[in-house]
Design brief:
elongated, single chain
Length: about 260
């Protein structure tokens, strides 16, 4: 009986303690908290892009490497400053022929701000240095879409469009000689049709011959050039298949001879 009384007394004490704790917590929560002193909190200094821009302007690639990385790799850098740093470092890389790095920086800058006509044009010129003409044309076109009056982009796009047209024309006749292979009857003509290299040589000879005729200073000179071509064809037809006759060498020598005549 006495043991039961002790247990009941302990329960009463515990309930009283819990009630007092809850009351204290409620009182503390209802008290007004002192205002936070913002001025007393430590301030994070803004990312300074100036050292990066100064180093790239001075063409100091070693100093720029650290100064620009401090801006570009900092997640707290403002977007505008990040774009500036990427453009500056990309231009520096381009001046030092680090083309892939320059393209990477320009590409990242364009992802952040796709309205930069100058950077599209600059990246197009970098693609051109790498030999990627389709990507170059695409970037020049993107620059013109943003700014139709962009002079450099207009000149670059026009030049590349002509170049791609020329390449397309060359590809269309690649491996085809100056004559119709379906009508080839001589063994030498069939040999030329069967070889892409010889077919290209034959077409070059024919084109250079026509140019030489067109640029002849007089009818007499034009007749002389035509006579030389006729003699070459006759020697080629007669010599092919004979021991020691090198068709490729004979064609290369003829092409060199014509180019000596017409100045190319």
């Amino acid at each position: 009986m006495r043991f039961q009384n002790l247990i009941q007394l302990a329960g009463v004490v515990l309930l009283s303690a819990l009630s007092l704790a809850a009351a204290h917590a409620a009182t503390a929560a209802s008290r007004p908290r002192p205002p936070v002193d913002v001025g007393a909190m430590p301030r994070v200094p803004p990312v300074d892009v100036a050292p990066c821009l100064a180093a790239t302007a001075a063409d100091d690639i070693d100093k720029a490497a650290a100064a620009c990385a401090a801006v570009i790799d900092n997640e707290k850098t403002a977007k505008a400053d990040l774009v500036k740093a990427l453009i500056a470092r990309g231009a520096l890389y381009a001046r030092h022929d680090q083309i892939d790095r320059a393209i990477a920086d320009d590409s990242r800058a364009l992802l952040l701000d796709p309205t930069l006509a100058d950077i599209f044009n600059a990246r197009g010129e970098l693609w051109l240095k790498k030999g990627d003409k389709p990507k170059a044309v695409q970037d020049f076109g993107a620059a013109l879409k943003i700014d139709p009056n962009h002079e450099k982009a207009k000149a670059n796009h026009k030049a590349m469009a002509r170049e791609l047209e020329r390449i397309g024309a060359q590809m269309a006749v690649a491996g085809k000689p100056s004559f119709n292979c379906a009508r080839a009857s001589r063994a030498v003509e069939k040999a030329i049709c069967a070889s892409r290299e010889l077919a290209d040589l034959d077409r070059e000879i024919y084109g250079s011959h026509l140019r030489a005729i067109r640029e002849a200073q007089s009818p007499a000179e034009a007749r002389k050039i035509q006579h030389e071509q006729d003699e070459f064809i006759a020697r080629r037809n007669a010599g092919y298949g004979r021991p020691g006759y090198d068709l490729k060498k004979a064609m290369q020598e003829r092409l060199q001879r014509i180019n000596g005549v017409d100045g190319y």
